[in-house]
Amino acid sequence: MDRKLILVLLLGLMLSGCQKEDRYGPRGRVTGKVTYEGQPVSEGAVSFFNAESSITTSGKLEADGSYTLMFAGSQDVPLGKYIVTVHPPSVSHEPGEAPPPQKEYPDIPFKYRERQTTDLTAEVEAKDQEFDFELGG
How far apart are the C-alpha atoms of 80 and 124, rounded to whole Å? Predict the structure, then answer.
């Protein structure tokens, strides 16, 4: 095989691999803490919905109210302006079984659970960032 053809093929493979990795562009890391009346919200999740695309990323709330956003198996989140929600954990059950009783989550007011009603926002930049949210009543 001609050397030039091999080089062209290798270059094409390398470039296609780079494009795949850069599909979402530059990214930043996001952590933070969610509190309600000064106390950590210890159950549920935080979700970031990109205001200009269909990108959604989320992070599980830990016992101390902290979270780390994950996107496509990575802690690197695409840059942009996001609408932020905080919601209770999902309740799962086996098909055909009655769902378990819903637990109340008074530390997550309904206002913050939906994109249409939340007033929480964040702008992710190409750096490590911390977004803390205090949920009001």
Answer: 5
Name the pTM for this structure. Answer: 0.77
Centroid of chain to Cα 68 = 8
CATH architecture of 25-90+103-135: Sandwich (2.60)
Contacts of 28 (CB under 8 A, 6+ apart): 76, 77, 79, 124, 125, 126, 127, 128, 129
Positive or negative torsion for Cα 16, 20, 21, 26: positive
Which structure tokens are listed for 116? 């249409």
pLDDT digits (tens, 9 = 90+) for 86-131: 999 876 767 877 766 667 888 999 999 999 999 999 999 999 999 9
Is the pLDDT at 136 greater than 90? The verdict is no
Q: Find the helix or strand (DSSP H, E) in which 36 lies.
A: strand 27-36
